[in-house]
Design goal:
About 50% of the residues lie in helices and about 10% in strands. The chain contains eleven helices and 13 strands. Helix 2 runs antiparallel to helix 3, helix 4 packs antiparallel against helix 5 and helix 9 packs antiparallel against helix 10.
Length: about 290
């Protein structure tokens, strides 16, 4: 695995250094939000694998190329920037203690803050890191569960590290709105309204795309709180119990999988993103 990671990293460095992605066929660099996403998203992996030379290369590049860079950028996914750029920078800072990662994370987060100005407290789904402007995505009229519930760990951590509660306040407000809309339910639908108050809509339940990390972040926020915010732990436990009773199924050949439910009917499919669930359950079993 380490050799495969090094091979991929060297390909990125040689052909797309400083770009967000590398095109697999042409080998050319591709930038969509101009944050060197592949580099930031790889930092913790490089550190854990003791690829210190590669980690230092990334740090040096970041010191010479402060992010976010000025210039035209356009609207991009708040969710993706959070879990890939912001989380990558914060994890690199926790592991290495090097200030460039924290300072960059703060600048990125500051550009994201205006997205929280929606009346319901949920950040708009797309943000321009150059202007701070934000908007909702066009392909769906609703808020996605994962978008609303997959930002708290990063923003809360940033507040606690900087000693500035600005970031945690907006993150907690978003989570509070989701929890109020849930009404104490464990499993919740994938979509919420954009209005005030926030309400769940539809009857599509899934641990795959658009819902997955909401459940993961319930557990991780409880752990992040020093195991003090028990309402998060209890809601996670309820969700896991409901998942086990309603969605865990077995194929005719004996394979266990996590299905979806839509309008009361089981959909015998398991989204590839649902593969995070075993790791989440292991984390819960070791910490509860």
């Amino acid at each position: 695995v380490r050799d495969a990671t090094l091979y991929s990293w060297n390909g990125y460095k040689q052909k797309a250094w400083g770009h967000d992605d590398i095109k697999p066929v042409s080998g050319q660099g591709k930038s969509w939000c101009r944050l060197a996403i592949t580099m930031l998203d790889s930092l913790s992996t490089l550190w854990v694998m003791n690829l210190t030379d590669e980690f230092d290369e990334a740090r040096q590049w970041l010191e010479s190329n402060p992010l976010p860079r000025p210039g035209k950028r356009g609207f991009h996914s708040f969710f993706e920037i959070t879990i890939r750029a912001l989380a990558g920078l914060l994890s690199a800072h926790v592991l290495s203690g090097q200030k460039v990662f924290l300072e960059t994370a703060r600048r990125v987060a500051d550009k994201m803050l205006p997205a929280f100005n929606a009346p319901n407290g949920i950040p708009m789904s797309q943000v321009d890191l150059n202007t701070g402007e934000s908007t909702w995505h066009k392909w769906n009229k609703n808020v996605l569960l994962a978008e609303a519930g997959t930002l708290q760990v990063e923003f809360r951590h940033l507040s606690r590290t900087l000693g500035n509660d600005t970031y945690q306040k907006v993150a907690d407000k978003a989570m509070a709105a989701v929890l109020e809309a849930s009404g104490g339910r464990g499993l919740v639908p994938l979509f919420l309204t954009r209005g005030t108050p926030l309400k769940f809509v539809g009857k599509h339940y899934s641990f795959g795309a658009m819902g997955d990390s909401y459940y993961e972040y319930l557990l991780k926020q409880w752990l992040q709180s020093g195991k003090r915010e028990d309402h998060l732990k209890n809601l996670w436990k309820t969700a896991m119990e409901e998942m086990m009773s309603e969605l865990v199924k077995t194929t005719p050949s004996g394979l266990t999988y996590i299905a979806e439910k839509d309008n009361g009917k089981i959909k015998t499919k398991m989204d590839h993103l649902t593969c995070f669930v075993p790791g989440m359950l292991m984390l819960g079993s070791h910490t509860l």
